[in-house]
Amino acid sequence: MMAVPSTRTPVVAMVGGGQLARMTHQAAIALGQTLRVLATAPDDPAAQVTPDVVIGSHTDLEDLRRVAAGADALTFDHEHVPTELLDKLVAEGINVAPPPQALVHAQDKLVMRRRLEALGAAVPRYAGLVNPATLDDDLDAFAARVLASEKAPLVVKAVRGGYDGRGVRMARDVADARDIAGAYLADGVPALVEERVELRRELSALVARSPFGQGAAWPVVETVQRHGICVLVIAPAPELPEDRAAAAQQLALRLAAELGVVGVLAVELFETTDGALLVNELAMRPHNSGHWTMDGARTSQFEQHLRAVLDYPLGDTDATAPVTVMANVLGAAQQPAMTAMSLDERLHHLFARMPDARVHLYGKAEHPGRKVGHINFVGSNIADLAMLRERAELAAHWLSHGQWTDGWDPHG
Questions:
Q1: By three-state DSSP, how is residue 49 classified?
Q2: Are the CB atoms for 81 and 57 separated by under 8 Å?
């Protein structure tokens, strides 16, 4: 008797209902699938668009069980799920991707730094600050080992929970670092201190890995940060020597394999003034530095993440154009001056001026500094980069503020 082929489509569940889940659902539709999401509220960005929503908390085991029930894989829109809860899900037979023993390296900066050192990956010099009783001694020992002067600047980071600049503080000197770290420890949050690296720029090496062990790497990109938030991504990173780009890709693929990552991995890098590459952060999910792939690569990071967690063969990661510029649309400090102008009206005016803008809005209320969308501009020649960057920044500012910074008048 012939077996009847199954008509069931795979189910991927994602913890978190933010914009990353929303865009992953868009990719799932093209694959004939529906992404199930664990959202905190019905108006979360992903909950607005997917019919398969579980309302609950990522810190509640029963809510995690509900969203994972019957799913082929459980994956993440953010890294904030407690590791002990994920271990329980794995023990119950749930396919968690990436697995908790990999994800912890994106959750805990101290665990990540120590593991990367053990793997021979270059990182900024650092020290863990986990005990209030030894804080002074730990900081003094680090300063003696690393700094030429106690007046040199340092970086202090919360070990867990930081993102978009949160949990990262620039310290003027050792005394200031002591105060910042002491405040973290008083709140029960371990910290680390690291040297202030002499940067040329920040880069991101985005890769994906499947359970089968297949890996794929997109071109290395440059990320531009303001106030700890990424505002611009340039793909590929301009004037990055070929051997340095290849080294970044190989490092990211090696880390994905060594850590046992399943899905997308972003390796955020410092390129120092002397050309060295240092690992700054890891993210094990689709990442802001990969939003350009939606319009500038053969396979977007969102489709690739689904392919990876379902163990499909991975897609082609080649760029489809010589250069793509992505600009984040951030909520303005104050509502746009033309208060009657909705975001939709601003979008109307943007398209009238820049019909080639590829806009992706997240369905989020506008709050100061909040990522409410992004815009991609694709160029046919690397010589277009300066023009594309200017247009991307003009467009993002217009959508945020309702003002053209170059004084352009649509009625002029």
A1: coil
A2: no
Strands 191-195 and 126-129: antiparallel
Q: pLDDT higher for 337 or 146? A: 146
CA 278 to chain centre: 17
* CA distance linking residue 278 with residue 274, whole number of Å: 11
Average pLDDT of the residues in 268-290: 96
Q: Which two tokens stand for residue 260?
A: 């046992």
- Has residue 186 got a pLDDT over 60? yes
pLDDT of 2 over the 70 cut: no
Average pLDDT (337-365) is 90
H or E element: which one contains 180? helix 174-186
The rounded mean pLDDT for the chain is 93
Does 239 score more than 90 pLDDT?
Answer: yes
**Is residue 223 within 8 Å of 289, Cβ to Cβ?**
yes
Long-range contacts of 4-11, Cβ-Cβ distance < 8 Å, separation of 24 or more:
9/33, 9/34, 10/72, 10/73, 10/310, 11/36, 11/52, 11/70, 11/71, 11/72
pTM given for the model: 0.94
CA-derived radius of gyration, the chain? 22
Q: CB neighbours of 305 closer than 8 A, spacing ≥ 6? A: 24, 27, 75, 208, 263, 264, 285, 286
Distance of alpha carbon 69 from alpha carbon 115, whole angstroms: 32
Residue for token digits 């990071």? 301
d(CA 296, CA 318): 9
CA distances from 146 to 156, 172, 195 (A): 14, 15, 7
Residue carrying the six token digits 């952060």: 281
**pLDDT reported for residue 164:** 56
- Residue 14: strand, helix, or coil: strand
